[in-house]
Amino acid sequence: MVWMGNQTLIPHFILLGLFTHSPLHLFFFSIIMVMFLVALSGNGLMILLISVDSHLHSPMYFFLSWLSLMDLMLISTIVPRMAVDFLLGGGAISFTGCGLQILFFLTLLGDECFLLAFMAYDRYVAISNPLRYSVVMSRRICWIMVAGSWLFGLVDGLIQAVFTLRFPYCSSQEIDHFFCEVPAVLKLACADTSLYETMIYVCCILMLLLPFSVISASYLRILVAVLCMRSAEGRKKAFATCSSHMAVVSLFYGAAMITYMRPQAYHSSKQDKVVSAFYTMITPMLNPLIYSLRNKEVTGALRKLLGRCPCGEG
């Protein structure tokens, strides 16, 4: 313990975790580990398919490969640590370890926010202006978009990690969560965090609402363009291409907004854990399944890789 005035500062935090060691929770833990393995294999396979199959070397799949990498890194930032704590009965995490987890988690979260917006813009250009698609979405522009996503995410993660750990933490050292998420950590601060919570809210507007506005505007214009198509087959293909992306956006943004855009007073530990599990474990597992099961080009690439078909499907 470190003494500061009349307050005793704690040397580290203790993560209480998502489960107890009851038989039911052991069953749930087993399910999460299966989800973790599915997410690793699904996202890893998606990256492999996109890199080796020339039919998937387009801007849409370029962004999708980065989304898979981000999902793979996101779930790996959370689940292995949670599993070790559950199996060994620990939970202690240093200030540095907690800060790094906040940094990695929020960086990846911010990355995905902007990448999903760029993916929506890519679909808008492909459907609304197909003749200029290769010019507008050139390789250079795609790399700039990905680099911008990482930059914005890193800045957000650094700001929140540094400012969160600058507060004095005393009395209880138990974080009622399964990882160092900012709202859960701030509950232990023995100082006024209202100004910082306002700053977090502003950051969330920038990191969530602005990309979501780009996505909404892109898909509104896509909808108008699709409805103007004369070909029923063209409308069907356009809707099929975009519906997968909209499903991913709804899952990801819905959970993130519930966590980061509610006032601190409305947070409850149980609800926060469930919502956080949704976008740190369930969404990374579902993303490759959503994109692959409804995509003939991805399934065709998988068949080629497995040697079942001599050529890819359209």
From TrEMBL:
PROSITE patterns associated with the record: G_PROTEIN_RECEP_F1_2
GO molecular function, one term: G protein-coupled receptor activity
Membrane-related topology note: Multi-pass membrane protein
Ranges of residues in domain G-protein coupled receptors family 1 profile: 42-291
Upper lineage: Eukaryota, Metazoa, Chordata, Craniata, Vertebrata
Protein name: G-protein coupled receptors family 1 profile domain-containing protein
Gene Ontology cellular-component terms listed: plasma membrane
Compartments where located: Cell membrane
Pfam family, one: 7tm_4
InterPro entries: GPCR_Rhodpsn, GPCR_Rhodpsn_7TM, Olfact_rcpt
SUPFAM superfamilies (UniProt xref): Family A G protein-coupled receptor-like (SSF81321)
Primary localisation category: membrane
Keyword Membrane included in the entry's annotation: yes
TM stretches of this protein: 26-49, 61-79, 99-121, 141-163, 199-226, 238-262, 274-293
Gene3D superfamilies per UniProt: Rhodopsin 7-helix transmembrane proteins
Keywords recorded for this protein, A-Z: Cell membrane, Membrane, Olfaction, Sensory transduction, Transducer, Transmembrane, Transmembrane helix
PANTHER family: OLFACTORY RECEPTOR (PTHR26453)
